[in-house]
Amino acid sequence: MSDSARPADRFADQVLPYARLLHSTALRLTGNPADAEDLVQETYTKAYASFGSFQQGTNLRAWLYRIQANTFYGSCRIRGRRPRELPLEAALESAAAERTAVASSAEDTALARMPDPALKQALRELPSQLSATIYLADAKRYSYAEIAKLTGVPLGTVMSRLHRGRKRLRARLTGDQSPAGPRQRSRAA
User: Fold this and answer.
1) How far apart are CA 183 and CA 189, in angstroms?
2) I need a surface site. Which of 1, 38, 109, 155 has the fewest CB within 10 A?
3) Alpha-carbon span 55 to 44, nearest angstrom
4) What confidence tens digit (pLDDT) does each residue in 50-86 have?
């Protein structure tokens, strides 16, 4: 082929014949046919992007293998830095087991045993400031100071909201509606 041919045509003519060799190497590296196809595709993408810098007359196959190996090992490094992915159900079971294991108060123990729909409904019935504070403290395990920073309210307000919210939540979950708020109680007692 002449030097005047378009770079895309030269690439196709010179590189595409190595597809089977690259695929078999990718299959050995990944151990999975779908991942091997992805690796070959990524290799071709990177090779096409840098084909202009390839020196004609050098070993094209070695150049392609180097690109493929670098791509594979780069993706392994990236995967190694990511947190381990779990199916959602396994993560929820793990979180429930942790909550039960660290439950120190009777309230925490009771909440851990509550069915999720009842708890969710009770949280939805609370004012948004209280439910958000409870969620951040009990589900996400943020400290009072972190919650204050996240919500933009003073530390004392976070502590007060958490106390009032837990009290109302406990009342809703046990069916006792009397502690709904200080204004609803009678002053005669």
Assistant:
1) 13
2) 1
3) 17
4) 888 888 888 888 888 889 988 888 887 777 666 665 5
